[in-house]
Fold these 4 entries.
Entry 1:
Amino acid sequence: MTRVAFIGLGNMGSGMAANQVKAGREVVAFDLSKEALARAAEQGMTGASSASEAVKDADIVVTMLPAGSHVSSVYMEAILPNARKDALLVDCSTIDVDSARTVARDASMQGFRAADAPVSGGTAAASGGTLTFMVGCREQDFAEFEQALKPMAKAVIHAGASGAGQAAKICNNMLLGISMIGVCEAFVLAERLGLDARKFFDIASNASGQCWSLTSYCPWPGPVPAAPSNRGYEGGFAAAMMLKDLKLAQDAAEMAGAPTPLGGAAEALFDEFVQRGGAARDFSGIIEMLRGKA
Ligand code: NAD
């Protein structure tokens, strides 16, 4: 039976690891949180007392941790010294490109196959096994990583070499942050001009303003029933997470010398929204700040 070590059983990791169990794999789980470990046991996983213990004898090691510093330390202190050399190492956290490349380089220098594989899709997709994975790894290793990720995925896409998965993720989320603010500003202007919001939606969604933030995740309540705007901006994709991704994009842009003025403006606006108490709200809730209501 394929043995998976899963480290980081938070909002995303717990559902993802449960899908590995459902696929008939043996999952040995570790998290610093006792509650997360208790939940993992209820879902059919074996709890480990440390990350080092979890990775021993694993065929696949998955990490789903908050940020680059957590991933680097778990790799250096637990995974690289204790995992089998033929284990597949895959980090699904959203982290900076630099840390992803450093971790992959260190792993490969010790003879491991490693991939960065951040995801698109929130907690519902994590539980439903319908995440999209953007994978950075060597071409010849991709097929095996694809099999490893399959129980948790709707799609697994090879983005390029190490770090390319993280690069794709932050470029996509920078675009999403900018487009959401653009859609919000258009609704606020339409409102001030006395244009009916529903009429504006019907026109823009059939005109050149059409985009995902408008037609699939409309920040104005009503036109898209499943969007968080109809639930008081609860759940969904937290503004704090969007801010984290926009910061990663700005850091990467500075490092690469890429001009991203709108990415910078989006970061500043989400920072303001978070400062004003919007951290846990869905990111489309920024429309309330732009309307002067937050
Ligand atoms: P989370 O904070 O809910 O979970 C992180 C887990 O890691 C926690 O349970 C924490 O206890 C554990 N952890 C931290 N350090 C650890 C260590 N050294 N050893 C073991 N466990 C440790 O975060 P999340 O929402 O599950 O997000 C995880 C990653 O996925 C982040 O990088 C995030 O940006 C990314 N992501 C999140 C979403 C989302 O909608 N939540 C969507 C896409 C990507």
Entry 2:
Amino acid sequence: MWTARTAARRLVLSPRRWQHTTSRQPLSSVTPEDIAHFAKILPRNAILSTLPPSALPSSEIEQYNNDWMGKYHGSATTVLRPQTTQQVSEIMKWCYERRIGVVPQGGNTGLVGGSVPVKDELILNLGNMSKVRSFDPVSGALVADAGCILESLSEYIAPHNHIMPLDLGAKGSCQIGGNVATNAGGLRLLRYGSLHGTVLGLEVVLPDGTILDNLTTIRKDNTGKPTSGYDLKQLFIGAEGTLGIITGVSILTPPAPQATNNIILALPRFENVLPLFKTARLHLSEILSAFEFIDREAYELAVKHGQGRALGEDEVEGAQCFVLLETSGGKKEHDEEKLTTLLESLMDAEDPLIITGVLSQSPTQFASLWRLREGITEAVSKEGKAYKYDISVPLASFKDVVDTTREHLRKNGLLHADAVKQVIGYGHVGDGNLHLNIVAAAYTPEIEAALEPFVYELVASYNGSISAEHGLGAMKAHAIHYSKSDVAVDMMKRIKQLLDPRGIMNPGKVLEV
Ligand code: FAD
Ligand code: MLT
Ligand code: ZN
């Protein structure tokens, strides 16, 4: 029967109304009484606080309040460093009760301001949760605490001849939990796919302290037959800590390739990148494991700041951009032969796609060539303050996007040593992911206003994504509409409301709620 009451309920469930009914109470700041409670859960040395009784100077927690780029600054008074999932659960139960905002923090290498508070939320740093729980050398399933450093995990499985399915420049500091939370891409995505495929299961502490143990190590799981159940782990991959705290990760690690080679190619024109990619795929097929793009400015910057060994002057003369290509296969000689044939065919062509190619001849040279690409992030941070836009656009438009942005800044009178020093581009060609970096002398409202929404509109004009791999964090929460439909954003808000009804998980990140 149709009654006024059912009508009202239907209205509340409609998206618009739902938004209207989610106004929340403000979050609470951490107090000395909260610290006294945390002291019942954690040992004293796992609580860092400027509040009594420890009353540390704020300099002691500065590293947790500031992000890797020095762009985002929180004002947390308290950092907790639990060692067990149970402790995380107890902390969350209390924070849920008290409505204290919580920022999960891994290695704090994120590039979108997601890992530091927007105000004075509590920081829950996972660094003390760093044990490998199990490794099966037959299946390659690795189960580890979320706070394990990516590089340590690589070292742990190396003697078993396995590698992590992802690799990134921040490997020495970033944690597997942070990688999963950001759905990090990196340098091996072309070969091993995204974490949505390689993560087998997760252990997550929900905002109210409930532990969701989904740490399976099996590859096929259709729980909920006859139709598949909801694959809950996928919700937390890329959620950037807004739905819960990842405390354990089960991940499929591939067997280590028996041979790896890399080669850097200097190209006379950007237009050659796409045909080169096609040719490389054709010649190298299954052994092609990375195809990375570096524009001339990015290359010069890496060299300037000592990242890797520069190519000879004559080798780079006339080069507009570079490609770093890696192969991972079963037999070195076989792979080298394929690479040499590729090189010959590129050089012998009537209108050669490349000016030159340098093939690494030793493990040191291999590492040095990779450093030229991986080290760009560090070189940029040494040069100045970076506005980093991590975007997906059609490959053919990479150069246009960089040039158009540079031109826009020039027209706005901002392209000079005291404002914007350089506009550079590099990225993962195989994934259609361009890193557009604007290197400035300082972060200023004037530069930011010139760049946003300009860059987002430019990306939207190519039907691209404003966040290819780094996430939305605090930087792009307001701009999510450029890449997601209203329906999708509304559904995300509903999921957030369902899992985090009090809005305590990483507030102000991903979604503006
Ligand atoms: P943090 O920076 O601490 O956190 C990142 C986000 O995840 C935050 O929103 C945080 O709240 C959340 N989070 C962290 N841990 C957890 C957890 N256990 N549970 C729930 N939420 C959590 N990214 C790429 O995708 N590809 C690259 O190639 C790449 N290269 C990089 C190179 C350098 C030099 C640097 C500095 C960064 C790079 N990044 C790259 C960006 C960054 O996303 C990754 O470094 C990494 O995935 C972040 O891991 P982290 O442990 O440092 O997480
Ligand atoms: C990279 O590909 O080097 C990383 O995503 C970091 C960056 O964008 O600088
Ligand atoms: Zn990247």
Entry 3:
Amino acid sequence: MGEIDRRSFLAASAAALTLAGHAGAAELPALGPLAKAAGLDFGAAVGPWLWREADFRAAVLRDCTAIVPEYEWKWDYLARAGRRPDLQPIQRYLAFAEASGLALRGHTLVWHGAMPPWYPAAAGRREALRLMTGHVTDVVASARGRVRRWDVVNEAVAPEDGEPDGLRRTPLLAQIGRDYVEIAFRAAAEADPAARLIYNDYGLDAPYGAARREAVLRLVEQLVARGTPIHGVGVQSHLAAADGYDGEALAVFAARLQEMGLEFLVTELDVANPGPGPGPGGAPDHEVAAVYAHYLAGVVEIPNLTGIFTWGLSDRHSWITASQRPLPYDGAMRPKPAWDAIADALRRRAAETHRLTA
Ligand code: XIL
């Protein structure tokens, strides 16, 4: 099948999926319109179940303004068959998103947790640069002008590794050097000047996260000072009901980003409750929802917030153990109190946005 045939086939199949998903959507409450009224993206991580589960797809089309592939756009998945990436997963989500009026967030170009199985443990700077920038360029260029945001580099700080600047000890740091993050962002910008380029990390909202917050701020301040094309920082927001989070520290962190002209995004929100999940020892849904409500009440006050993404939409697919219930919908696609908490937060942001622009 020639390229144009494949593209038209993908577009036609995506359109068919979209029409099927919209049927009956009108009467159900939806997060998507609330997000638009708030001037934000609301999105969720999705996977191949998007194609085969009509009830999940319908919820995505109702609730989301954007989607992010959970694992199929990662280097290890795209390059699972060899050094040249299989770009079909890129094209399939592009076709569906464009047929559905959804924005795409690409996740993630460079992450120590998703290096290809063939990536060399030992490589000189020249070879490592060729591999990393080649991958970034191949993938981003294949979707040029069609992806709203890219998570360019993911989880590059680890103060516990003992590096003076808090960078995580990874093969790319060892092989390329401390400028690998800047180089990755520059390669992405050259491949798609229109994309918003994001640095993504975890533990930035945690009570224990001060060193992580400082290391990320140091990294992005250096990138900005060097004129690196970076547009925002993603806070993964994998919350554990038992651990809590430091909303004030997060607001200060976001204000530092705003001073640099950077977006603040919640990129992988879910709430892992303590214990084995609902029932004896586990937090019931209303306690999980209370964590969503309190966390998002602070988040929607952040001026440079541009999007909220949950890491999945239904417990059916969560990467957290199936016994827990960390997401807005349960396994049967019934909305839970967490869904209401997200809706309330978006309404609050929309009301504030309306007040400011009225
Ligand atoms: C996880 C996915 O949810 C899993 O399906 C996959 O097997 C491993 O990666 N931080 C990240 C995400 O940035 O890419 C990770 O996603 C979860 C932690």
Entry 4:
Amino acid sequence: MKINTGKILKNGRSLLLAYDQGLEHGPKDLDLTSVDPKYIFDIALEGMYDGVIVQAGIAEKYYHSYYKDVPLIVKLNGKTSYMDESPISRQNCSVERAAKLGAAAVGYTIYTGSPHEPEMFAEFSKIVEQAHDYGMPVIAWMYPRGPKISNELDTDTLAYAARIGLELGADFIKIKYNNNPEAFKWVVKCAGRSKILVAGGNKMEEHEFLRKTDEILKTGVAGIAVGRNIWQHERPYAMTKAIRKMIHQNMGVDDALKLFEEEAHKEKK
Ligand code: FBP
């Protein structure tokens, strides 16, 4: 069966909007605006994202035909911030349910280095098999974490996580950036034909985020899967336009910054 990556990947590049933080971190990440999933789906649609990532419950209640132009990515596992010692994230949604919800792809987090790694490997492998039977691509959040991991951003640790993602059958690997572009190229290499998407992280000042995105894109990744740096931003559409141009039209960071300023000014009016 051919894996249909074309819905979430355009000319080898992808810009995804992540909104599973309500479960992963709790409402502390949200405010009176971003607490409403409709706000995020509207940004995803108008911002022409290549996919929006949510848990099944949110997909079920908020993703409907109006949003059909935004590919839906259903996260199949999740854990709360109460579970940080020896993390395990168990499956809470089947591939079949995701397919019924209209998913273009599914996602699953593996905490490499956790004592519960074997359970997550086993669940993930079944998910890959089932999703591929539907022709659906699988995105693996490869996050080193647990007592054996002293530095989640260590290059060898990230490279190992990326390699595991490839070997377990992930089509895309979502991973954190180590702020070292030369070293990160090795992480990208280790992922082989699995495509790397970099996670956004805590909200930062827009100039910093755009500069970081530019640096990341030069390491050979397919794109980014960003959350808080968009929907916690007071100008999410201006941010989106600038990032989209960088990802899909190779716009340089200085032009992207200029575009952000212009668009932010328009958004203010
Ligand atoms: P952000 O861009 O907001 O960091 O989202 C990316 C993401 O991978 C989310 O999908 C997920 O909820 C979160 O980061 C998990 O990060 P962590 O486990 O480090 O809190």
